[in-house]
Specification:
seven-stranded mixed sheet, globular, 124 residues, mainly beta, four-stranded antiparallel sheet, single chain
């Protein structure tokens, strides 16, 4: 059974920073991409960043230059450093593992294993 657990969320004022972590178990070989997603009311689940096992990364245009995805110990944990946070980036953040060898996807449909999420609240 593959399980993922996110941590590091919390409340921060606009312009502040947070670092999220994702630890997984039951997944012995990091072959497929991993990603970070945000779910906000009325918007569904949106791709924020993804990373391949060779270290290549991809970001949503809205976060490029402010967010950084990185990894330790074969992506366990996986990190998302979020700087200069905006109020519209409030939401539940999830990490996930893809189920197909599609390069650096940001579509939630490409991911089959999900954590429970960690809440990020950005206030004005």
């Amino acid at each position: 059974v593959v399980q993922l657990v996110e941590s590091g969320g919390g409340s921060v004022q606009a312009g502040g920073s947070l670092r999220l972590s994702c630890k997984f178990s039951g997944y012995r070989y990091w072959l497929y991409p991993m990603g970070w997603f945000r779910q906000s009311p009325g918007k569904g689940r949106e791709g924020v960043a993804s990373i391949a096992n060779n270290g290549d990364t991809r970001y949503a245009d809205s976060v490029k230059g402010r967010f950084t995805v990185s990894k330790d110990n074969n992506a366990n944990p996986l990190y998302l450093q979020m700087n200069s946070l905006k109020t519209e980036e409030t939401g539940m953040y999830f990490c996930a593992i893809a189920t197909r060898l599609v390069p650096l996807p940001l579509e939630s449909s490409r991911f089959g294993y999900w954590g429970q999420g960690t809440q990020v609240t950005v206030s004005s």
